Every structure is written in C-alpha cells, then in structure tokens.
Amino acid sequence: MATEVKATNITWHEGSVSRAEREKLLNQKGVTVWMTGLSASGKSTIACILEQMLLHEKKHAYRLDGDNVRHELNKNLGFSAEDRAENIRRIGEVAKLFADAGVIAITSFISPYVKDRDAVRANLKAGEFVEVYVKVSLEAAEKRDPKGLYKKARAGQLKGFTGIDDPYEAPEKAEIVIDTEVVPPEGAARQILDYLEKGGYLTA
Amino acid sequence: MATEVKATNITWHEGSVSRAEREKLLNQKGVTVWMTGLSASGKSTIACILEQMLLHEKKHAYRLDGDNVRHELNKNLGFSAEDRAENIRRIGEVAKLFADAGVIAITSFISPYVKDRDAVRANLKAGEFVEVYVKVSLEAAEKRDPKGLYKKARAGQLKGFTGIDDPYEAPEKAEIVIDTEVVPPEGAARQILDYLEKGGYLTA
After folding, report:
1. In this structure, is residue A4 part of a structural domain?
2. For residue range B16-41, what is the model confidence (pLDDT) as tens digits?
3. How far apart are CA A147 and CA A70, in angstroms?
4. How many distinct structural domains can be found in chain A?
5. Which residue of A has its CA nearest to B58?
6. Closest Cα to residue B51, out of A12, A9, A94, A99?
7. 3-class secondary structure per residue, B53-84
8. Which residues of A touch B52 (CB under 8 A)?
9. What is the complex's ipTM, to 2 decimals?
10. What domain range includes position B59?
11. What number of C-beta contacts closer than 8 Å exist between A and B?
12. Per the domain annotation, does A105 fall within a domain?
C-alpha cells in the first residue's frame, strides 16, 4: 500500500468540506462545458480531444454523453418534448454536482431547445456554464452522417430527428462558437482549452 | 494566470480518456461509500468527518446527500414506494458516474430498503460499492432526535417515517458495520478510512 494514512491528532471541524477546498486540492475550478449542436456536428470528437488535453494539463475532467447518461440515469426517459426536457434537466443537475465537486464537466448532447439549455444555465452560478455551439450546416451534417441517422430520418425510419422533423434552436449567446466546417476538431478543442485557461478555470 | 497551457506537438488519439487515466491523475480509485441507517443514526456527521479526513490525505471525495440531491436532481420525486425506489436508483447512477470519474463518492441517505440498495450494488462493479451500515437502535435514535422528526412522526404529523410507520431493513452483508451507540463519529470515520486504505482505494 503506497498511501499511508497519516491523519492523527487532528480535530475535525463541524460541517463539510467546502467547494473551495476541493478546487484547491485539484488546482482548478468546477465548471460545466456544455456542447450543443446537430448530430454529426463533431461534439463528441471535440469533447474527447478536450478531455485528453485537460488530462495532459493534469486537470480533472469528466465527460457526460449519451453512453453514460441516456442509457443509465435517464434510461426511463423517451423522446417526447417532456422527456427531452427532463433529460436535459437531469444532465444539468448532474453537471452541477460535478462542478460543485470541482470537476470540469464536459457534456455532449444535441440539446436542441434554447429553453432547456437556458434552464440549465439559470440553475448554475455565473461563469459556471460555458455554452459551446458546435456549428455545422444541416447539409454538411447530412453529408457526414457517420451513423447513417440522417438517412434513416429522411426515409422516415427515425421520427422526431433534430434537423429533419424536429427543430434545432441555435444558441444566440454561446460563450464559444465553433464552425466545424472550417475548424478541425483539434483546433476546436484548443479553442475551448484557451477559453478555460484565460477564464482562470485551470487554476484555483 | 498560473497555469500555462503547454500542450503542443502532441497527437491526440481517437477515443476518450480512460477511467484508469483519471484514477492515475488523482492517485486513488473511484468508489461509492454508501451509508445507510435510521434518521439520527449519525450518517451525515460521519460522512462529513470522513470527507475531511480524505481531503487531508489529498484524496478527492464528494458527498451526496439530501441537500444537493433530494432538492435538485430528485426534486420531482415524492415519498411513495415507487418514488423512493427511483430516488435511490438515481442516486446510485450519479454515484456510479462519480466512481467512473475516479472520485470517492460518499452517499448519506436513510435508504431503508434492501432491494433498492442491492439494485445499486448490482449496477456497480465488484468492490465499487462499499455499504456502511450506520447502526443505532430506534430507541437511541429517538432519544437523539436532533431535528424533532421522530417526535413529529409519533404525533402523526409525518407519515411514512422510517422506523415509525415505515420499515428500516438493516443490511445483512454490509462491508462495514458501525454501532454509533458505542463508536463516536470520528472513530467511525476512521474505520471507513482504514477500510479504504487497506482496500487499495487511496492509491492508483
């Protein structure tokens, strides 16, 4: 066992460890980096590279996406407008817990509605919600279509697909806008990393 | 700005940062320390001291309790058997995300039903769920009654109160059992800390 528990002769105070103490331990600030954009816009690719860049800087980040949220915490939700709203609400609450824990939470969901995203923003403190609009034209997204989802949606095999028969409401006040038809994924991730660095999130 | 972003000339691989990489960064293993016991058993007090002890060891822990979960993520749940089950399910899913992030999650909820707790256990990997039975007799809990809840329940002002008119099902296979009528909170927290140390959770 490498770590030996050394705590002795210490008086433990009443109450809990503060967020500031956790942030000091990690030398970073808790924040939610909220990526929004059409399917195939490049959200996940950028999120993965950002996660790697943050690890390289010895920063503690965690990615929330369809795999670990939609199929677990939110597996009892469908795709009605009500369930979509509850899906985003829960993701926002979890991101808030991670931010409170001092972690850099990176969420990667289409999150098409302004109302739902703004509700998450309103639930967090100023500066704790960094909205990243991963911008792509519908035409370019359909051309990429790595999972063949647009094709299925056009064929009527997928209903309520964002961009086809359900709206995508682009952010008007996103902290970061990335046009993925111009900027490659690595450049996009670096743009977010720079924002976090300049904003003082990578120190405590 | 203390932290300068140094990442240059690095090729970023496909795919995401692994749990092992996060654990190595933090030098600890992600785990859920699940405290269960009657109201006034001492769960929160012990959880707070444990959190402080872990911080002192430079370990990253996060406490999930009524304040940051019941009133936020789970604010749309009531106290029916179904809602209680969903409450514990969601807490378990969030704890799982924290464990996956490499964090030591400490949950502090009465969580009275074996079935609900075992469902959380089954959803985590072996060794990832450390159940701590914070044991106290109903008599002693009622005598403590710091929030006057037992008094209200006895007076019929609180319905479905665990121990009074709703059952508490004690764990039979808890990893740690603490009798809080004998062991003071600091000793209890140290007992959990020792378990984590011996189990290799405080290194990666």
Report:
1. no
2. 899 999 999 999 999 999 999 999 99
3. 17
4. 1
5. A25
6. A12
7. HHHHCCCCEEEEEHHHHHHHHCCCCCCCHHHH
8. 12-13, 16-17
9. 0.92
10. 19-198
11. 152
12. yes
